[in-house]
Fold this protein.
Amino acid sequence: MRPAAHPIRWILSLLAAVIAVVLAATLVVLQPWAPQQESAPVAEAGAGVVIESAPSPEEASDLPRVLVFGDSWTVGSAATAPSGGYAYRVADIAGWDTIVNGESGSGYLKEGRAGNTFGERIARLDPALDPDVVIIQGSINDRRQGAAGYRKAVQAAWDDLAATYPEATIVVLGPAPQVLPIEAATLRIDQDLAELAAAREWPYVSPIAEHWITDDNYLEVIDTSERGADHPSDAGHLYLAQRVAEAVAPLVDPVTVVALEEDPEPVAGR
């Protein structure tokens, strides 16, 4: 008769078999050699900052890519949800793939809620975003900073922006009045930006010169409540998105501007 296996050897053999099965199952699940899936676009909303990264290659489309860069108006402040802000809604109206980069309180001289000026934020933009168009909005936040050093800060920020995206069309969207009558400092900023943009032959869109916000539509566009703090309302963000699409669409090829069939209706005073 064949002698029985030694108990210790039998136990060791069983443990070895179990370990082999566990390792095999782990490798099947983890597959460390397999390509890793890219993360979805990221949205951050801390300290009045909203940054949306570019879509992953799998999500990329043939739509014109437009980077909207600005302050609290670009963040979507006073909208019921940030996604109701003009910078997001313009994508549906104009048929663009938009990338939104905003920081509340930020300006060329003024540090925003997260402690950054426009120039500091531009220095951190990702060149790989490769937008077809950059819309740089605002900002009324510089109206308390004075004129000293303002044009120099604008020029430096724009130099950096142009170097980061040399192939992009850069459109300067000037400040829009948050109060009426328009403050003298806001008028100065609008004039400075218009002249600096003209010197570079960059398109300049002036909500002030084009009378986007007037006595006739002010209370429909601007939320004057404590919560709104003189930022655009939901209706105001929709209205601004329509105006921005109309102003910038001729500079984007190809693009189709369509009516946005939803409430609230576009406000008066256009």
About this structure: Residues 99 and 206 are 22 Å apart (CA to CA). The longest strand covers residues 97-103. Confidence is low (pLDDT under 50) at residues 1-5, 21-47, 255-266.
